[in-house]
Amino acid sequence: MTGRAGCLQILVVAAGLCVPLGAHAQSSTPEPAPVDTPAPDDGIIYGFVIDRDTRARIADVEIVLTATGLPARTTRTKASGGYRFAELPAATYTVLARAGKASFAKTFELATNGRQRLSFLMDPLVDEHRAVVVRPGDPDDTISTPMCLGHGCRKWYREWARVLRRQARQEARKARRAARRDDG
After folding, report:
1. 43-167 belongs to which CATH class?
2. Fewer Cβ in 10 A, N or C end of the chain?
């Protein structure tokens, strides 16, 4: 230990201080508390593609998810006819299903950490292109504002009316069951 560095080390040891080298350069100010990072977006969009005539679920249908300012995502329905998109931020989305000659788009708003089921009744053999807007608060995948583009509109409107009537019957059944439970 020669030179000034040796003298400094001897002086520190002689004073009875055990200070690691480089400690004098450390700041005595406390480190800032870690910032809580927001949880990742956890919205989910899921559903099925169903043949309108046979009511069978359709596999291998292309599903495209788009939203302004976000990259488009694409998937295909599984053997069960189902699809799913997860980890989605709140935004206005359009889900497009393309099967054979037919395409069907639904547009809706997904809330933060929201879940939205969107199922599609389609006939892949018919050349028709449809779009609907799903309003907030609509149960499940109700078609609320129909817009039909292309061939087969009359048939589609009849199907839409049938879906709404079926949902009204289901709601009436639920109300009757609830009334019976309250009475019984």
Report:
1. mainly beta
2. C
Q: HSE of 109 in the Cβ direction (CA atoms, 13 Å)?
A: 6
Structural Rg of the chain based on CA atoms: 31
What is the full per-residue pLDDT of the chain (184 aa) written as tens digits? 455 444 444 443 444 444 444 444 444 555 555 544 445 578 999 999 988 888 889 999 999 999 988 999 999 999 999 999 999 999 999 999 998 888 888 888 888 888 888 888 888 888 888 777 777 655 554 444 444 545 555 666 677 677 778 888 888 898 899 988 888 6
Q: Which residues are within 8 A (CB) of 35 and not within 5 positions of it... i.e. 6 or more apart?
A: none
Is pTM beyond 0.85? Reply is no
